[in-house]
Amino acid sequence: MAIFKIKKVIFDQPEKSEKRKIKLISFISFLTGFSQAVIIYVMSYYFKLASGTENVSFFYTTTFVVVLILLINLHKLVKKWGKSRVFLLTLLAKIGILFSLTLVEPSYWSIALLGLYLVFNSLEWTMIDVILESFSRDRLSGRIRGLHLTVFNLGSLFGPFLSIKILAAADFGGIFIFILIINSLVLILTLLGLRKINHQFSQKLGVRELIKKVLKRKNILRIYYISFILEFFYALMVIYTPLYLLDLGFSWEKIGVIFTFMLIPFVILQYPAGILADKKIGEKELIIAAIVFMAVFTTAAYFTHSRSLFVWSLILFSTRIGAALIEILRDSYFYKRISGQDVDLINFFRTSMPLAYVTATFLSGLVLIFLPIKVVFLIVAIFIFSALYPAFKLMDNPCEAELKDKL
Length: 407
Prior knowledge:
Blueprint: H1 2-11, H2 19-40, H3 43-51, H4 57-81, H5 83-101, H6 108-133, H7 141-193, H8 207-215, H9 218-247, H10 252-262, H11 264-268, H12 270-279, H13 284-303, H14 309-336, H15 343-349, H16 352-367, H17 375-386, H18 388-393, H19 400-406
């Protein structure tokens, strides 16, 4: 019921002609978040089964180098084919890969397929962003992005718990079949509702020109670094937290409970934070507070020696309070500074994720040769603290209250 009230608040704004499209995109986001969460937290365990090692750095580094290259050039495909066609292409590729994964046992071949799945999953999420921005207004960015992420993370909330149940009942084959069904539903919805969204844009920038364009916009670079740090946090925490908890003696059932509780902040905080950034404060102050909060509790994860389900649930929940706030605020800040025509900038902004995964997995791969998995928490905390400098240097976006005071 709360989600429908949120939608009413947004759609009472002047964009009524596009509200059906935004509703559909929101539902697709829910399904995408749900399917992604079913696999993402057990992916490192699958790699361990297939390869016989816990060091997943080569797999993730290689995969996200490919994602990085594709994202930098994605705007060229959008210019040639249009937004919805590129989105459909990523969906079809994912469905084909998932079907192949249902036919093979864990092996190096299946690892390669899983890498391709991650590639097209990253492109799909970026294209959802690009399509959504076509219907957004700057002054509503916090609310629209907050709704988008809240619905996505509402789907993600149930994924870890369900994945453990499916894994116990039907192994990884069951997980791949389940995700295949969800992605097929997304494909049908896209064909019915988003097939004709093929907005064009006029930029004809190569990679070098795009980088020059970004370098001239200092605040875009600053929020990009903050986004990079958030994705760095996600990369190492998603990959290594399940493995570390398994080493501590937690069962998959208990890990599922911990992760489900851990994700609650993404559902309850992001939309209110978006409203607050739009109306009262702006993003800068909230970003700074969120960085400090996330860094402190990630440090606590390194220093704790507890094997208590409650303690780990509380620590990981607290880290996600900061992460949830940064996730919505970085998007709100960025999208207020661009337009729907800046497809190249959106694609560049989303390279923070693959770049972070490449950096994180390469660095952790070297470190874990000599040190235990637990040191990952300390590495992440140090990187998070480094985001405070660009956060303090950000030029804040004026909120509605500040704009009224100037009138």
